[in-house]
Structures are given as C-alpha cells and as structure tokens.
Amino acid sequence: MAMRGSPARRVVGNPLAGVLGHLDHRARTAARRRTSGQPVEEDPPPHEAPPMEPAGPVGTVLLTDEDGRARWTFPTAYGSAPAVTAVAVDPTPDEDDRTVTVALEEVTAWCVTVRAWRTRGRRGSGVAEPAGPDVLVHVIALDAGRPG
C-alpha cells in the first residue's frame, strides 16, 4: 500500500526526489509481479551456474637464478590468468644501499615468471640491474574471476 508523505514526496526542490520516487515505484511494481506467480519478462530465465572448483589463494617462496628470474608452476591450472602478487626480500640489506624490487614478467593460467632487480636512485635517472641469484621472492596467486 502506498503511503503519502514518503521521503521522495516530502523533499521539495530536490531533483533526487524524483529519482527516489521512481525507484520506489519500480521496486513495489516488481515485487507485486513476482508474488503473482506468473513469470515476468524482466526476470532472467533460470539456469544453473557452472561448477566452480574451490580456488583459494595459493602461495610459495621462490629463489632467483643468475638472471634474477624465477618461475612457479601453479599446483592446479586456473581458468584464466590469476591475480598475482610478488614481493622480493633483500638477502643482504646491510651490505648494499640498492633496493630490491620484483616485476611480474609473465602470468598465465598455469605459471608465473618474476624477475628481481636491484635499483639505485640517481639524479635525473635511476639505475637498475638484475638482482642475481638467491633472492627470495614471496608469490601469492588468487583466481581473478572469482569475487573475493
């Protein structure tokens, strides 16, 4: 049953009031149609969702090779490329003033390749070179198609 004096009707001079009134009317109309037991054209046809495998976050710690690269093959392949996060850990932070960073070079449904770099800031331009072997890289992969 409609009620006079609803917030959409009481607000004078507000353009949002018309939008609120329209939304309120559409919601009441749709609810009435659904309770009548007859199919409504606006309702999508019922369908079954495809079965999804539980794809929680998986992670590992990688060790880089001579070029500063490391590759990880996922335990099970994803339906598409997952969302990947990688963080490098500097093995000798006190011996070197350069910063260790990591970049994702390749992400596929079944593997990820990362490369660690040592960077040093310089006026006008920075200097970056491959980090070399034995840099720890923490990697986490999560199914990007699944809301979290």
Largest sheet, if any?
4 strands, antiparallel
What is the CA-atom radius of gyration, in angstroms? 28 Å
What is the overall silhouette?
elongated
Structural class: alpha+beta
> What's the SSE pattern?
HHEEEEEEE
Distance between the termini: 39 Å
Global mean pLDDT: 76
Query: What's the β-strand tally?
Result: 7
Features of this protein?
three-stranded antiparallel sheet; elongated; 17% helix; Immunoglobulin-like; 148 residues; four-stranded antiparallel sheet; alpha+beta; single chain
Describe this structure in words.
This protein has helices at 7-10, 15-35; strands at 58-63, 69-73, 83-89, 99-107, 111-120, 127-130, 136-142. With 148 residues, the protein is of the alpha+beta class. It has a domain at 58-142: Sandwich (Immunoglobulin-like). The strands form 2 sheets. Strands 2, 4, 5 and 6 form a 4-stranded antiparallel beta sheet that branches. A hairpin with a 3-residue loop joins strand 4 (99-107) and strand 5 (111-120). The chain is elongated, with a radius of gyration of 28 Å.
Detail the topology: elements first, then pairings.
Elements (H helix, E strand, L loop, with lengths): L6 H4 L4 H21 L22 E6 L5 E5 L9 E7 L9 E9 L3 E10 L6 E4 L5 E7 L6
Antiparallel strand pairs: 1-7, 2-5, 3-7, 4-5, 5-6
